[in-house]
């Protein structure tokens, strides 16, 4: 029975904070405790998991619903009189929720976040509440295929006042205040006016006290093979081999702290890869991929940085394929990309991407004369969205091109690609460009 146990825990959580208001809420909503769960209906999306990656200055929370849902995010100030911390809450309409999530809040308590809890707000709204230790800037966006809502919380960007515009006018009461029936339809992304102002500009110039941290991200893995070449070579295997070579070459000097998002043939969701880099406070994020095209003659190396759009159809198709979604789904995160990926970090990423691409082509050319450079490019890759460091995505030739696929079977070609990335990262690390890093 999804309903009963869930409701009970839900109420316990709410009751702890609400007292009398809860009774009013229940009457108003006409919500019997044993109401049949919305999720029992076939085809109704439901919150199936809540995942979190966190350190004391950064947290990413992912709320999995599988199917697309409408949602709305908002904030509430701390309410010392009631013992309530500042909260971010996300209302998900027309969704059910898995029992285990109702029973078990995600406890964090790391100085930024206390816990993430969820409950049924009314018959068809699930509310996920993030209890913060202190008021923080945040961004919320959704990724499709499968649908998940991502909340990025920046503990360094503490702000004195949360936004108070009409759209941000959170219910003045505690978490379970009843929404007005006139509430506007939830937007698919939070309008810019609702977002907390970014505090990046106020960051003091930090001095780096640790070795340069590099997160290498071999794309795909496990059930996701990535692109497959004419003779069956799989992108996921090639990029893992390249990633291991980069780690080995870069780790030798002791100058770099090199990590990998995966070191085996496993599937890792895109948002988790970014979260791993952020949580690990990487200075540089390099996502490794191999391109593919229906045009079997397409060839060459390119390196991308994040942008809201792309300059041509091929790049959009590439991003859609790497994101695992149809092109029409790429639109949803435009505002978020514009807002998050600006200023020094974008310039640094552009610079690193150009350096990487030039070096990779040069190193591969010594083994395979005539290796082509497509150059520096931009496209909306999900794996780069929300990365807090200099971040690039390498498309190391076309696995769909028979000649390039054959090269990619040659370990010396993979060495060349790895040498190029290593040279570029070294150059980048040694030239003080990292002084503007978020850390
Ligand atoms: Zn790929």
Can you lay out the helices and strands and say which pair or pack?
Layout: H1 2-18, H2 20-29, E1 46-47, E2 49-55, E3 58-66, E4 70-76, E5 87-93, E6 96-97, H3 99-103, E7 106-107, E8 113-122, E9 125-132, E10 137-143, E11 147-154, E12 212-218, H4 235-251, E13 256-260, H5 270-279, E14 284-291, E15 301-306, H6 313-323, H7 334-340, H8 343-367, E16 373-379, E17 390-398, H9 402-408, H10 411-430
Parallel strand pairs: 1-6, 12-13, 12-14, 14-17, 15-16
Antiparallel strand pairs: 2-3, 3-11, 4-5, 5-9, 7-8, 8-9, 10-11, 15-17
Helix pairs in contact: 4-10, 8-10
The structure holds zinc ion.
Total beta strands: 17
What is the rounded distance between the termini?
47 Å
Give the strand content.
25-35%
Oligomer: single chain
Detailed description of the structure:
The protein is of the alpha/beta class and 439 residues long. 29% of the residues lie in helices and 25% in strands. It has a 6-stranded mixed sheet with strand order 13-12-14-17-15-16, with helices on both faces. The protein is globular, with a radius of gyration of 23 Å.
Briefly characterize the structure.
It is built from ten helices and 17 strands. With 439 residues, it is an alpha/beta fold.
Characteristic key phrases:
single chain; 439 residues; alpha/beta; six-stranded mixed beta sheet; five-stranded antiparallel beta sheet; 10 helices; disordered C terminus; binds zinc ion
């Amino acid at each position: 029975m999804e309903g009963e146990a869930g409701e009970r825990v839900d109420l316990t959580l709410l009751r702890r904070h609400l007292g009398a208001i809860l009774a009013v809420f229940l009457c108003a909503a006409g919500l019997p405790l044993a109401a049949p769960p919305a999720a029992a209906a076939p085809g109704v999306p439901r919150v199936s998991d809540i995942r979190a990656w966190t350190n004391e200055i950064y947290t990413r929370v992912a709320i999995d619903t599988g199917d697309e849902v409408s949602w709305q995010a908002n904030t509430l100030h701390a309410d010392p009189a009631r013992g309530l911390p500042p909260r971010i809450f996300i209302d998900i309409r027309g969704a059910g929720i898995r029992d285990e999530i109702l029973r078990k809040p995600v406890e964090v308590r790391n100085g930024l976040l206390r816990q993430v809890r969820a409950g049924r707000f009314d018959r068809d709204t699930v509310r996920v509440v993030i209890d913060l230790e202190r008021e923080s800037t945040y961004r919320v966006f959704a990724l499709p295929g499968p649908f998940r809502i991502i909340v990025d919380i920046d503990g360094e960007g503490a702000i004195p006042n949360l936004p108070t515009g009409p759209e941000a006018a959170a219910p003045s009461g505690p978490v379970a205040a009843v929404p007005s029936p006139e509430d506007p339809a939830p937007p698919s992304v939070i309008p810019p006016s609702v977002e907390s102002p970014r505090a990046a500009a106020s960051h003091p110039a930090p001095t780096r006290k640790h070795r340069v941290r590099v997160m290498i991200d071999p794309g795909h893995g496990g059930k996701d093979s990535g692109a497959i070449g004419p003779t069956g070579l799989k992108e996921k295997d090639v990029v893992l081999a390249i990633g291991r070579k980069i780690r080995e070459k870069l780790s030798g000097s002791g100058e770099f702290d090199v990590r990998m998002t995966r070191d085996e043939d496993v599937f890792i969701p895109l948002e988790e890869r970014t979260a791993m880099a952020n949580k690990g406070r990487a200075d540089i994020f390099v996502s490794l991929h191999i391109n593919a095209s229906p045009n079997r003659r397409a060839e060459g190396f390119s390196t991308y940085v994040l942008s809201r759009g792309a300059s041509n159809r091929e790049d959009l198709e590439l991003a859609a394929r790497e994101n695992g979604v149809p092109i029409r789904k790429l639109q949803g995160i435009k505002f978020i990309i514009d807002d998050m990926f600006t200023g020094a970090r974008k310039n640094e990423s552009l610079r690193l991407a150009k350096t990487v691409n030039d070096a990779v082509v040069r190193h591969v050319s010594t083994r395979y004369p005539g290796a082509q450079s497509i150059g520096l490019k931009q496209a909306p890759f999900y794996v780069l969205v929300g990365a807090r460091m200099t971040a690039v995505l390498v498309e190391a030739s076309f696995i769909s091109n028979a000649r390039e696929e054959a090269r990619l079977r040659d370990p010396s070609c993979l060495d060349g690609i790895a040498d190029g990335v290593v040279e570029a990262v070294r150059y980048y690390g040694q030239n003080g460009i990292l002084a503007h890093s978020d850390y």
